[in-house]
Amino acid sequence: MNRLFDESIPPCPRCQQTTALPIVYGDASTEMVTAARLGQIVLGGVATEGYMPAWMCPCGTRY
Ligand SMILES: [Zn+2]
To answer: Do 12 and 56 meet the contact criterion of CB atoms below 8 Å apart?
Structure first.
């Protein structure tokens, strides 16, 4: 399986944890859907203009 994200997760601005999941935008491949089901990534849906957070913290913060 390809690496979908690098290993350095920036700390959450709210709780300072570094256990966030990467948010992946665009059409989800089968591999991406599987990773999301396993709790490895968050599917962000279709990419939009404007602010697109890259990380989803377990506390609910997207940043
Ligand atoms: Zn957090």
So the answer is: no
Q: Are strands 21-25 and 42-45 parallel, antiparallel or unpaired?
A: parallel
Residue 21 alpha carbon to ligand 1 centre in Å: 11
Do 18 and 11 form a contact (C-beta atoms < 8 A)?
A: yes
Residues with CB under 5 A from ligand 1 (ion): 12, 14-15, 57, 59, 61
Q: What is the DSSP letter of 62?
A: B
User: Model confidence over 33-58: pLDDT tens digits?
Assistant: 999 999 999 999 998 889 899 999 99
Q: The whole model's pTM is what?
A: 0.81
